[in-house]
């Protein structure tokens, strides 16, 4: 997306029933201060420019996937544990807020304001899932045209509870 030299598969866009659906896997960016972190920030900049362009069209847009950003302190079990991680740094968090300031809404947070303890990722260590010590880093952003159609956005913890699961679990969006 916006960089022909970028060989990573991180973006898929389709139009389904007159809605643009973009699925992303935003770079992790660790360790902080490395070229991986610079790559993450450059990618977030390109995403921001693309989000702004989409707002200029009449096509409603959903952007979902692994953003690898912990937007707010409420989106992690223990903020102090993440202060040195790329997912929690001020710059990615500022980019995420910039996307919201364009007019996009965080579908989950819109329907669950102020509610902590809702996560989409848990480490495999020290029974993080069993003790709900996780982070919310998978998101759905909706363009303003879809705000009135938002019916639900919930985290499905079922797959994470299975044997040999992914460290992420699905977040599920329903529009009317």
Would you write up a description of this structure?
It is built from three helices and nine strands; from the N terminus they run E-E-H-E-H-E-H-E-E-E-E-E. By secondary structure, the chain is of the alpha+beta class. It has one domain: Endonuclease/exonuclease/phosphatase (Deoxyribonuclease I, Chain A), CATH 3.60.10.10. The strands form three sheets. It has a five-stranded mixed beta sheet with strand order 1-2-3-7-4. The model has no long low-confidence stretch (mean pLDDT about 95).
Order of helices and strands: EEHEHEHEEEEE
Given the helix and strand composition, which structural class is it?
A: alpha+beta
For the record, what is the CATH homologous superfamily label? Answer: Endonuclease/exonuclease/phosphatase
Mean pLDDT across all residues, rounded?
95
Described by strand count, sense and barrel closure, the largest sheet is: 5 strands, mixed
CATH class category label: Alpha Beta
Could you say what the CATH architecture is? 4-Layer Sandwich
Give me the Rg, rounded: 16 Å
Short structural description:
This protein has 176 residues and is α+β, with helices and mostly antiparallel strands.
Descriptors for this entry?
alpha+beta; 5-stranded mixed β-sheet; two-stranded antiparallel ribbon; globular
Record the SSE blueprint:
Elements: E1 11-16, E2 19-25, H1 35-55, E3 61-66, H2 90-101, E4 105-106, H3 107-111, E5 121-122, E6 134-135, E7 138-142, E8 150-155, E9 171-175
Parallel strand pairs: 2-3
Antiparallel strand pairs: 1-2, 3-7, 4-7, 5-6, 8-9
């Amino acid at each position: 997306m916006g960089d022909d030299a970028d060989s990573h598969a991180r973006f898929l866009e389709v139009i389904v029933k007159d809605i643009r659906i973009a699925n992303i896997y935003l770079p992790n960016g660790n360790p902080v201060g490395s070229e991986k972190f610079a790559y993450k920030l450059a990618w977030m900049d390109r995403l921001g420019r693309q989000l702004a362009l989409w707002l200029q069209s009449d096509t409603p847009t959903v952007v979902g996937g692994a953003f690898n950003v912990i937007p707010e302190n409420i989106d992690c079990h223990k903020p102090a544990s993440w202060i040195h991680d790329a997912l929690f740094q001020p710059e990615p968090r500022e980019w995420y807020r910039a996307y919201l300031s364009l007019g996009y809404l965080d579908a989950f947070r819109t329907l669950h304001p102020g509610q902590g303890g809702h996560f989409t990722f848990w480490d495999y260590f020290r029974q993080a899932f069993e003790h709900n010590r996780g982070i919310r880093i998978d998101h759905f952003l909706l363009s303003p045209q879809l705000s009135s159609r938002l019916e639900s956005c919930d985290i499905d913890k079922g797959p994470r509870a299975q044997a040999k699961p992914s460290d992420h679990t699905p977040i599920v969006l329903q529009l009317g």
